[in-house]
Amino acid sequence: MPPAYIPLLLFSLLVLAFPVVTLIVFKYLRPGSRGGPAKFQPYECGILPETSTRGRYFARFYIIAMLFMILNVETIFLFPWAVLFRGWLAAHLAAFALLPMFVFLGVLLVGYVWLYKKGALDLA
Amino acid sequence: MSPMLHSILAFVQTWWVELLCAVLIVLVVPLIAVYIVLVERKAMADMRARLGPMRVGPHGLLQPIADALKLLFKEDLIPDNADQFIFWLAPVLSMTAALTSMGAVAIGPWFQVARDINIGLLFVVGVGALGPFGIVLGGWASNNHYSIIGALRSTAQLISYETTAGFALVSGFLLAGTLNVRAIVETQRTDQAWYVFLAPVGFFTYLIAWIAETNRAPFDLPEAESELVAGYMTEYSGFRWSLYFLAEYANMIVVASVGTTLFLGGWLRPFPNVRWLAGLDAAPTLLLAAVGAYCVFRAGKQPARAQSMFMWAVAFGCFVVAAIFTLALPFSHLPLERMHDGLYGAFWFLLKVSAYIYIFMWLRFTLPRFRFDQLMRLGWHILIPLALVNVVDVGIALALSSEFGINRWVAMVITTAATLGAAMLLLHWNDKYAAAASAALLTDSSIAEDTHAG
């Protein structure tokens, strides 16, 4: 590990300790809990829940998750390209810098238009 | 034991600024977050012609402390059929993700936990992306219908806008050519322009996408009070609830810091290369002295002696910090230049971050909440293609100015006009499409009785 990351590691441990220590310390400092079993029912505006929440959900959320995977992987490919871009321009490699990414984005654009037409991007 | 002690001492000697920063961030950011809440309530009250909190301390200045104490001592309920461990873990995860991403943010040129790590903003984005896990796990573990619906909505919203947020960052990285926070700011100094002027559409998409990512109004559907009680936080009370709350505000600070670093020139003062505007360096001293003088002026008018003493203390603090700034002023080229640069950089950085956070609040008080299908349509149909077109256009502008010698401002105007044209087309298509979709919904007999659908 490069040494610059060691303070970052200590920092993240410190950050993790903040909520954990506060939760544990105040568990013993605060006054105890009072009240009957009704208090520990799920809060659904006073109506007793009739069904479990561990059921089925709207399938559209699954499509959204898949589209997110595709597009976010695309973003990951864009990051190194963006970082190297100005270096390529300085070396007069503009066509080399632009064209492959245009082809890549063009392929994705075709897919995007197809999804648009199919209505996969709507949640309504 | 002794060699180990030695190596620890050597480590502390090398990294004491970073370690100090780490401790300060953990201690101060939650405090700043609760004071942002106070500022938000005051600004909201002002826009609605009310006074806001006035009771605790002069002008309600101690209200956040009182709120924090109340929340710490509040009863802490865990519902019987909740998943105990995940219920416990989820808010901790949200809070940790939000605060850890502060580690790579640089507050001025010298105050940064992870100094000169070359992945810089990538670390912020990567760690920040753990936040949605806290939300979805919290909603699932609560075992409550409102919670699970809120968590699902929230997850769908966060992942939809994450892509736009990534593309907006890419348009900034194209201009900066690096992910290192310090290098990004220094490139803006050598380029003699904040990137908000070279990639205005990039900044615009960044602003919108990250408002949605932080679950702030007008995109605060996950916690829509009027329909979902409190969304994924419904079952949370006391300190666990305030952990979610702190995470939201810490996220706001991170987003504002990243936006400031990448698009608003970081810790550079306006026009850092213009010699005759060096008078702007007096701004921190003057601003703090003005705040102190106002506190002195108000101190005599407080109703109680304790309150006027508090005002005097605030005024004294302002004057002390103003004096520190004045004393550091002559050292811009001497051995103490680090102190000078660090102090003044931190001032400009925090000023820009505050302005950015004020925009968050302003939008919250001005705009009504989106409906869920409107939110998804804005994200998928308009913002994602717009941000993508913007990435391509920023690349073309850079290529035009370096290959064909076109002035970069001319190239910027041409490509921005192209991007805006694309945005107009997208809006036009979306309008046609939305009208057709609504008509189809209305003729669908199965939901004909629900007149509010579509």
Explained architecture:
The complex is a heterodimer of chains A (124) and B (454). Chain A is mostly helical and 124 residues long. Chain A has helices at 5-29, 60-90, 94-118. In chain A, α2 (60-90) runs antiparallel to α3 (94-118). Chain B has 454 residues and is mostly helical. Helix content of chain B is 72%, strand content 0%. Chain B has helices spanning 2-47, 63-73, 84-100, 120-128, 131-142, 145-176, 181-191, 195-198, 200-213, 225-228, 238-263, 283-299, 305-328, 337-366, 372-403, 408-443. Chains A and B meet through α1, α2 and α3 of A and α1, α3, α6, α11 and α15 of B.
Give a quick set of tags describing it.
heterodimer; A: 124 residues; mainly alpha; 3 helices; B: 454 residues; 2 domains; 72% helix; globular
SSE topology string of chain B: HHHHHHHHHHHHHHHH
**What overall form of chain B do the CA principal axes indicate?**
globular
SS summary, helix count of chain B: 16
The mean pLDDT of chain A is: 81
Averaging pLDDT over every residue of chain B, what do you get? Answer: 83
Strand content of chain B: under 5%
The low-confidence runs of chain B, each spanning 5 or more residues with pLDDT under 50, are 448-454
Uncertain ranges of chain A: none
Could you describe the largest sheet of chain A, including whether it forms a barrel? none
